Amino acid sequence: MMITYEWRGDFADDALHAEGFGGPVAATGWRARVERHSLGWVCAWRDGALVGFVNVGWDGGAHAFLLDTVVARACRSRGVGAALVARAADEARAAGCAWLHVDFEEHLRPFYLDACGFEETAAGLLALRS
Length: 130
Known about the structure:
Blueprint: E1 4-7, H1 14-21, H2 30-37, E2 40-46, E3 49-58, E4 63-71, H3 80-94, E5 99-101, H4 109-115
Parallel strand pairs: 4-5
Antiparallel strand pairs: 1-2, 2-3, 3-4
């Protein structure tokens, strides 16, 4: 399985996002939202199909944030997600960021801490919708 990775790749596939996060294809368009709010993103491609994605948001300075890490079901558990995160970290570093943050659900702890090398930190979360 040959996977290629591209920083700020030209994607238009809302279906991968819907598959990964269990929702309908967004009416506003995934690409439009990402372009408006991101430092960049990494696309993973296999035979011309988008099979992985991670968005890198930022504060315009030292802090970058991983969002929407997703890998197509057929490509999971093969290192695609870790390679996406590694490329995102490299690009955030190249943009002058000093920190890369991520929050995740408990079942993703081994992926982010073990496979991707994040360190556990204390953080807070405030729900803005019930």
